[in-house]
Write a structure and sequence with these properties.
This protein is an alpha/beta fold. It is built from twelve helices and 19 strands. The structure holds inosinic acid (IMP).
Length: 420
Amino acid sequence: MPAIVVVGAQFGDEGKGKIVDLLAEKADFVVRYNGGNNAGHTVVVKGKKYKFHLLPSGAIQGKTCCIGAGVALDPRVLKEELLQLGGKKILLMIDPRVQVIMPWHNFLDAVAEDVKGKEKIGTTGRGIGPCYADRADRSGIRFCEIVEEKRLRERVEAVFPLKEKILHAVYNSATDSLDKEKIIAEYSALGKEFAGFLQDVSAVASEALEKKNLVLFEGAQGTFLDNDFGTYPFVTSSHPIAGSIFTGVGLGLRKIERVIGVAKAYATRVGGGPFVTELHGALADKIREKGAEFGTTTGRPRRVGWLDLPMLRTAHRLNGFTEIALTKIDVLAGLDEVKVCIAYQNNGEKVKELPADMRCLGDCTPVYKKFGGFEISGKEKSFAQLPKEAKDYIAFIEKELGVPVGIVSVGAEREETIIR
Ligand code: IMP
């Protein structure tokens, strides 16, 4: 039962899209299990850039793409994304249980951030939090409920008055732009358009694994945006960690052959929240520009910092990595020196993993180890061809984590990858 999970080891934007695209060549199915169009997965093939928010990154390789029950799906975005593929046929399956992002979710996301003011999360504004909150509250609308107009109307009639009331009474917000009849018309047209994609992804993925097909599970966001194990409350509302494939797709517990933790050779974060190794000033600007660290979904500049090993150690504990895919090491090329945070200093104590209590994390300062600078051209085809300093850097990460670095990405293109 060859199951491979590709999971973000940091705060998202680690380059999972490229790794999934690479591995998808041999996969039979690529399955998304969490998040929604807050994600932005970039794949570059022969100079052409594809940006996926909802579709699994296996789409370009022509693989069967599945959207599992744990995903929050905005059908308006799915429509745009399919259009972007310019008529390229894709094999898509959407689980009937998938929660649908409705226009009031975007609205609620925006007003909640507004009211929080200085305490705002810095969400992507895609309605993700309110959509998952409705799932937990049992007032969500599922994908199977939008494919038939009568059913959709019943659900909207049941939920809409509640949303209007909350927006008026709690947020004192005008809801004129939310027109119930227009929403029903738009979503019922989208539902009809996508009805053919309805498939029980839990059953399909389980059967595929029984038949020993290769199933690739594509995580969105990253470990430290996990709703339980991330830097709460500065997290997303789903569970990006690897274990969430079982609940996000609907699989029985089973052995997973590979859990690939995708980690950038440095660190980035978009939105608010603690970031112990964050850099500011000219060096931060340089790395941001060179790494094109601007959100794929929102265009926001990403905060940048040095690689944080306490985070990666914790990510390994939470996900059980069998290997690391280290991305964007080329972005560090040309710097005089490269630093890695090996531990945190907290009130005179050395801490080697991320504390569970976020107040504690706020008091942590980084303890760094320095490495010499190096050059990388992107043409390196094997680990041996990397400069000594880069090899030392990678070997140090492996030793500290006790996990091999199996993939090293030296550029954005599919070919600019070293597989060891
Ligand atoms: P939300 O998921 O839109 O509610 O945003 C919650 C937090 O997660 C914010 O800090 C976002 O910037 C962050 N976030 C959500 N999705 C991604 C992603 O795909 N990459 C990086 N950060 C993300």
